[in-house]
Amino acid sequence: MQNVVILGAGEKGLAILEILHKEKDFNIVAIIDQDKSAPGLLAAEKLGVPTAMNFSNNMEKDIHVVFNTTENKDIPNPKIKSKMIICEPILSLILKQKEAIRQLTKKTDDLNEMRTMLEAIIHSSDDAISVVDEKGIGILINPAYTRLTGLTENEIIGKPATTDIYRGESMHLQVLKTRKPVRGAKMLVGPHKKEVVVNVAPIITNGKLKGSVAVIHDMSEIRELTTELEKAKERIRTLEAKYTFEDIVGTTDEIVIAIEQARKAAKTPATVLLRGESGTGKELFAHAIHNESDRKYNNFIRVNCAAIPESLLESELFGYEEGAFSGAKRGGKKGLFEEANNGSIFLDEIGELSSQMQVKLLRVLQEKEIIRVGGTKPIPVDVRIIAATNKHLEKEIENGNFREDLYYRLNRIPIHIPPLRERLEDVPKLCHRLIQKINHDYGRNVEVIEKDAITILQQYHWPGNVRELENILGRAIIFMNYNEAVIKKEHLPPLAKSSQPVYKQTAVLEKTETLQKMLADYEMKIIKEVLQKHRGNKTNAAKELGISIRSLYYKLEKMQNFA
To answer: What is the DSSP secondary-structure string of 178-242?
Structure first.
């Protein structure tokens, strides 16, 4: 074993100390330096190596080698000088290597720290994440992935990317093959056959493919969120009025009178009864009346009395108390009248109410209060009622289908909305407004409708009114090419022209009937005659009538129901 002394306890001496202390063939007799705070001396004390400020006589006898790490090369003691090794060149190399190792260690530590941080981020994500290497072998998944698929790390790490797929193609392998991301891929994964949507992207570093990462979304959660969003949207739509009088298009006397009456009605709290055929725009008027009134900042509730089953209508309108019936919510539920308190409620198809519901509605109008289903305590409400019907309520009263006292309560301010056939001069303006709406709904860019097409539209009798006009224009725009900006007559579906004899016939009728009924009778008569002429051949009959076979079937079904 060689006895050694290290001369100098600076950085270089410290480096020699660290090297020799690990070697079994060397015995460090002492490390010498006059600076008591030198790093080599401090390290030696921790390692249990003797330290000194100068050479002693005892050292001279037993020393085999002296490592000189100082700049002083002139040593007066000849015995020591003969044993001295100048370490400068070696130490410079050692220190450079040591610094390089230190830098490399720091980078490794930084990378490990970054990897740990990234893994922590991935593991904390609520989105299911899986990562594979360039060969498609699983290298990382997070807890959300296990919760979604039911597969653990032992079942995925080190296994092929197809391991988790129950049905479908591996998007990891596709991305590794194409180097292009994939989004919105649907598949079934895991033992529970979970339906998911997958987004996968390649991991590319310095131009080299290193693997791919996938984010997996549960389709059931997406559907649930979508349903909740639609419910929220529907709720918002139900509670607000969207239209104003500026949205009502028309300059003919009939529609202008209706708008003026509605504006006056909006300034009062009185009940309004909107009357008119289906598709004339009664709901549009109801929105406008609410928005013109002093209740416009409160709720506007819309109720289609014909769309809600009779068994549910009472609880929907008036609410219910807890335990009122099986399935009732804990704590009960507010009805639509309570929701509309201090606002307006629009009761569409009011003529469809049953006798029992008419009595309850009459109580609300008279007493300004409601009683929940299963309850006994009256709840006061301040609600402006706007009702609408396409029925002849006077005839319904004669037939015993509608209460006379309720009729007089509702008919405080009656407003008649004219059918489209009575204001054909408004067709061009209506077309312009409806084209804007359809463009917005369908993502189209149609600009105008030509005059010949307008003429055809003005010759039609419009049993479906403005709603039918919107349907016709929507159908024309759908079948137009995307680069077409003008609706031409060839874009319109076949429309039966109004027949002048209908009006002549009405002049000599002994029994007074509505125009719609007379038009329907005349249309039925023509169709029957043409069918008899062609011995029941519907295809030939449709050709002669200038309508599609589908339209003919629709009209025949309508006739059958009417009969």
So the answer is: H---EEEEEEEETTTTEEEEEEEEEEEETTEEEEEEEEEEEHHHHHHHHHHHHHHHHHHHHHS--
